Amino acid sequence: MIVCIGEAVIDMFQKKVPGLGDVFMPLPGGCSYNTSIAIGALGVPAAFVGRLSRNFFGDIQVKRLREYNVRDDLLIRCAENPILAFIKTEEGGQPQYAFYDEGTADKLLSTGELPKLPGETSCIVFGSISMNMEPIATTVETLILNEASKNANERKVIAFDPNIRPFMIKDKNEYIKRFSRLAGTCTIAKISSEDFEYIYPDTEPEAALKKIIDLGARLAIVTLGAGGAIALLKRSDGSMIKVRITGIHIRQIADTVGAGDPFLGAFLARLHYMNKLSHNAIIDLNETDLGDALSFANKAASIVCTRYGANPPSMEEIASIS
User: Fold this and answer.
1) What CATH number is given to the structural domain containing 73?
2) What is the arithmetic mean of pLDDT over 99-111?
3) Residue 106, CA atoms < 13 Å, CB-side half-sphere
4) What pLDDT is stored for residue 153 in this prediction?
């Protein structure tokens, strides 16, 4: 069971409608939420932990979880509204965001509300904007630090995707301190090149990966968009292995919003099917198995880029890409 914890937002995607111009179409989203759905779409047991509104937006979010067989019994339903994330895209440019998050359901997750994780949980996924909102940031950090304090034979895989949104960060220095603490607890840290540019400006991707490993993470992955991905793994014997995969040519990109979420979800799903989704198994991965999981994840992300929203692929769709 892979448990994803964090925010579940309503993404308002820009769409042009004849006679009206730009309108915004609501779709359920959020980094950990999307990752749980990507995992469920590939037939791997998944659950989502978070606060969802009791209004119709919350109902839409729950319905989507159920459609992908993601467990919803760990949810906290509440009176507050969800975060609204307006996303404006221009051809050839990076998406622009406007978040409305004051007093919203997601950010108010407290330690006392956390459900007990299922006994079969093998991996915890966290990150994104829930790192910069209180009290959810402290709630998640407490959970992760507690899990990381266990010995290697007992601890679950901890997978971290910061998915940084700089405009939501009020104090960069404090954010980087929290980022460093959490990155140091991880079995897996999946970070985009844009994230690295914020954390470690003017640093080459491989050097940035080494910094994450030096913090304490065992497997650090940087996604490079059309350039593919690079992974650096510190194995149990102290040796380091590096794997790089090339990008996949995409004929027509719909949008790239949320492509990193299915990448991580597919990577974890592939490890699950390889019987490698444990802390000890990951730190003993060889280059072949690591490259296989990276390529699988990259195919999943490339498919998502041909669709609007973080619409995850099936196993059959990924298998169709040579």
Assistant:
1) 3.40.1190.20
2) 93
3) 32
4) 84
Distances (CA, A) of 58 to 7, 27, 35, 69: 12, 11, 17, 17
Helix and strand numbers, DSSP H then E, in the chain = 10, 15
Closest by Cα among 243, 297, 238, 235 to 265: 297
- What are phi and psi for residue 29, nearest 5 degrees? -160, -160
Range of the domain at 227: 2-319
Domains identified in the chain, total number: 1
Q: How many residues does the chain have?
A: 322
Q: Which residues contact 21 (CB under 8 A, 6 or more apart)?
A: none
Task: Using alpha carbons, list the distances in angstroms from residue 285 to 16, 246, 292.
Answer: 46, 20, 11
Residue 7 gets which letter from DSSP? -
pLDDT confidence bin for 16, thresholds 50/70/90: confident
pLDDT at 131 over 70: yes
Which of these, 301, 248, 310, lies nearest to 270 by C-alpha position?
301
Question: What pLDDT was estimated at residue 14?
Answer: 85
Over residues 92-99, the mean pLDDT reads 76
In this structure, which amino acid lies at residue 304? Answer: V
DSSP string, 176-204: HHHHHHHHTT-SEEEEEHHHHHHHSTT--
Cα separation, 234 vs 220, in Å, equals 9
> Is residue 296's pLDDT more than 70?
yes
Measure the CA–CA gap between 29 and 10, rounded to whole angstroms.
6
Please report how many Cα atoms fall inside a 13 Å half-sphere around the Cα of residue 239, on the Cβ side: 7
Residue 127 phi/psi, 5° resolution? 140, -155
Q: Do residues 242 and 232 touch, judged by C-beta distance below 8 A? A: yes
* 256 CB burial (10 A radius; 0-12, 13-18, 19+): middle
Give tens-digit pLDDT for 135-190.
999 999 999 999 999 988 889 999 999 999 998 999 999 999 999 999 999 999 99
